[in-house]
């Protein structure tokens, strides 16, 4: 009876427990959802093993914790089949999960144990006896790895082997990861190659001749040992001068004399050599002898502070010499830019003589009836350089589609008037019309009408040009030399402000400087709509360059009140002028007004561009930049494609193409329009 009561009591207790299990499970789900899922996963995994392996069913049930079985029984009615399938699918890869292992290691669900060892490995005899599995000892340290394991997790559990489908999926994922990594590496390599190629292309545009002899772009920098002898000898010369000065100060004349002797020998051996290949055979011997003397001097005279002071003094002296040479170079380059080469002067004189030997009836150009025909394409060219004017006319006609419709109006001074006529009489521009005039016969252009002529005749201007501040040395002569350019004394330079007076019957005219080359047909400019403006020109302003504040004195209230300092500048050299609008707006009167206000040169320096910017302020229509490319007379880094695509290229600057200091890389664009085989060219040696 006692046993029955106990048994029935146990049964009653279990029934009561079963009756109250549902609210307990709900509480467990709400408070400890994550640990409960781990237990469920383990229970599901075990039940799956029971279904597939009948031989191990009894052993697995004995090793299963009764709490897990109870949780499994209570959770199945609460979760749908889909949720249980998801949990089961995740546990298929991970194996039985333990809450304790997650608490200890704090691992992600995608990590699992591999190679976990027990204290004593189970043998074949243990399997026959079917002993319960032993729990792994606490000191065993599991090896954690990514993916599935190949061996058993626990000693008595069956091995969890991957199915072929899962293995194939894992291998596919690994191949995808490897492929993506390879693609990323290849993409990085492609980007690196593109950057390197871009850097190489940019380096090709660097002109090493402009950067100087000791530029980092020199070839010898590729090998640090190249020309080492030349550099060593130059260093020896510097140190020899230092020790000569110290020896003289410390009264050691014998050592100073020996150093001086070796210095002269090394200088003669070095000469003008720029590389080791230029050195003479005796240079190495002289270098060794100098080295021995310098070692001797260093032993007797070396004083760190004294040597440092001498080198600093030499450096300062060299710096002053460099500055002086720069000033001299500036002066000489500006002087060369203002002079006429002997060959061009010879050409002008020979042509002038032959012109005045011609009878009057042979001095006339044909087709004079076209000079005032407004339906033709008219050009204005004011120049005293016969060769330059011939290039402008020749290049324009060669590239013109209808040469017979082009009319050239040339104006020169009385010194070159005969030469200009004779050249174009001997070399007529095909079917085009040409006419040459002398600016000195324009009677209306006098000092009473023209402010510039009146100012040039004033005593102050003569003092500025011919007497005041004349330099006694080359280095002092570079100051403001460009503002004392003789062209500012010539009315040819200011005649551009009187175009309606010179050509009263024309409606439009294209003004050209004599330092340009035409490379395309220009008739399209006559079709450009200027939108009521007077001047069509290419703008030259960049981020902060060639704006009004670079040309005008904005500290003057007249300038500051009327103009914007950030207004964009434009270029003379190729300008389309609407002469009807010019007359309507009285452009010449505006020019006279501002020129009278600048008699003391307080608004701008001498020149025609500043008064042009003022006169045509708000009246200039910007043209496309491909019409007119500037800078071939000073800028060595103009893109070649810009030059070749330009309708007109302009050699503005000091390096004119007819001078020896012209940039060689741009000279061919100009010389190809010169008739080098002409008898006059050969006689004046201009074809060389």
UniProtKB/TrEMBL annotation:
EC main group: transferase
Protein name: Hexosyltransferase
GO cellular component, one term: Golgi membrane
Protein's UniProt keywords contain Transmembrane: yes
GO molecular function annotation: polygalacturonate 4-alpha-galacturonosyltransferase activity
Record's compositionally biased regions (Basic and acidic residues): 147-159
Record InterPro entries: GAUT, Glyco_trans_8, Nucleotide-diphossugar_trans
Membrane topology: Single-pass type II membrane protein
Gene3D superfamilies noted in UniProt: Spore Coat Polysaccharide Biosynthesis Protein SpsA, Chain A (3.90.550.10)
Family designation: Belongs to the glycosyltransferase 8 family.
Listed transmembrane segments: 21-45
Domain of life per record: Eukaryota
An example Gene Ontology biological process: cell wall organization
Disordered, as annotated region: 136-160
Species of origin: Anisodus tanguticus
Subcellular location: Golgi apparatus membrane
EC number(s) on file: 2.4.1.-
Pathway(s) the chain acts in: Glycan metabolism; pectin biosynthesis
CDD domains: GT8_like_1 (cd06429)
Upper classification of the organism: Eukaryota, Viridiplantae, Streptophyta, Embryophyta, Tracheophyta
Keywords: Cell wall biogenesis/degradation, Glycosyltransferase, Golgi apparatus, Membrane, Transferase, Transmembrane, Transmembrane helix
């Amino acid at each position: 009876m006692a046993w029955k009561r106990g048994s029935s009591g146990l049964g009653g207790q279990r029934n009561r427990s079963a009756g109250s299990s549902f609210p307990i499970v709900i509480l467990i789900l709400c408070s400890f959802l994550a640990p409960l899922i781990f237990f469920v996963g383990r229970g599901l995994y075990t039940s799956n093993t029971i279904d597939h392996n009948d031989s191990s069913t009894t052993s697995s049930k004995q090793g299963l914790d009764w709490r897990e079985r109870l949780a499994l029984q209570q959770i199945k009615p609460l979760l749908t089949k889909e949720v249980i399938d998801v949990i089961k699918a995740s546990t298929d890869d991970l194996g039985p999960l333990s809450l304790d292992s997650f608490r200890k290691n704090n691992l992600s669900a995608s990590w699992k144990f591999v190679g976990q060892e027990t204290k004593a490995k189970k043998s074949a005899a243990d399997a026959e006896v079917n002993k319960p599995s032993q729990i792994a000892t606490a000191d065993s340290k599991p090896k954690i790895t990514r993916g599935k394991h190949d061996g058993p997790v626990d000693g008595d559990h069956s091995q969890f082997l991957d199915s072929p489908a899962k293995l194939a999926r894992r291998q596919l994922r690994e191949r995808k990861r490897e492929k993506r990594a390879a693609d990323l590496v290849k993409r990085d390599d492609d980007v690196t190659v593109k950057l390197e190629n871009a850097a190489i292309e940019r380096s090709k545009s660097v002109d090493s001749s402009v950067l100087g002899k000791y530029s980092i772009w020199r070839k010898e920098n590729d090998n640090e040992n190249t020309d080492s002898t030349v550099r060593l000898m130059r260093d020896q010369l510097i140190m020899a001068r230092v020790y000569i000065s110290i020896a003289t100060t410390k009264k050691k004349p014998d050592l100073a004399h020996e150093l001086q002797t070796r210095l002269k020998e090394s200088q003669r051996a070095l000469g003008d050599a720029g590389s080791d290949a230029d050195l003479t055979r005796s240079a190495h011997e002289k270098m060794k002898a100098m080295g021995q003397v310098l070692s001797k001097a260093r032993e007797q005279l070396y004083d760190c502070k004294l040597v440092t002071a001498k080198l600093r003094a030499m450096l300062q002296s060299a710096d002053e010499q460099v500055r002086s040479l720069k000033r001299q170079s500036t002066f000489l380059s500006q002087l060369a830019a203002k002079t006429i080469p002997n060959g061009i002067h010879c050409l002008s004189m020979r042509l002038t003589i032959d012109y005045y030997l011609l009878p009057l009836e042979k001095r006339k150009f044909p087709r004079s009836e076209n000079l005032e025909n407004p339906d033709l394409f008219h050009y204005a060219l004011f120049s005293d350089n016969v060769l330059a004017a011939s290039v402008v006319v020749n290049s324009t006609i060669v590239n013109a589609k209808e040469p017979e419709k082009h009319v050239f109006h040339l104006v020169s001074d009385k010194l070159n008037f005969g030469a200009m006529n004779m050249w174009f009489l001997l070399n007529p521009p095909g079917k085009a019309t040409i006419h040459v005039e002398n600016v000195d016969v324009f009677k209306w252009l006098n000092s009473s009408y023209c402010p510039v002529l009146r100012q040039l005749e004033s005593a102050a201007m003569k003092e500025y040009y011919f007497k005041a501040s004349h330099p006694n040395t080359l280095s002092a002569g570079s100051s403001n030399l460009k503002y004392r350019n003789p062209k500012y004394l010539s009315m040819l330079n200011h005649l551009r402000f009187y175009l309606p007076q010179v050509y009263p019957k024309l409606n439009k005219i294209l003004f050209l400087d004599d330092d340009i080359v035409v490379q395309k047909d220009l008739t399209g400019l006559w079709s450009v709509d200027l939108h009521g403006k007077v001047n069509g020109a290419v703008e030259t302003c960049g981020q902060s360059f060639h704006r009004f504040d670079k040309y005008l004195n904005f500290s003057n209230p007249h300038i500051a009140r009327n103009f914007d300092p950030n207004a964009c500048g434009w270029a003379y050299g190729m300008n389309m002028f609407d002469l009807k609008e010019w007359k309507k707006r009285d452009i010449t009167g505006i020019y006279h007004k501002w020129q009278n206000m600048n008699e003391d040169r307080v608004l701008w320096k001498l020149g025609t561009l500043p008064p042009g910017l003022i006169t045509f302020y708000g009246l200039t229509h910007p043209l496309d930049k491909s019409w007119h490319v500037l800078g071939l007379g000073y800028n060595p880094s103009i893109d070649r494609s810009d030059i070749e695509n330009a309708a007109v290229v302009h050699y503005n600057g000091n390096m004119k193409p007819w001078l020896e200091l012209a940039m060689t890389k741009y000279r061919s664009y100009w010389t190809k329009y010169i008739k080098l085989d002409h008898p006059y060219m050969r006689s004046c040696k201009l074809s060389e």
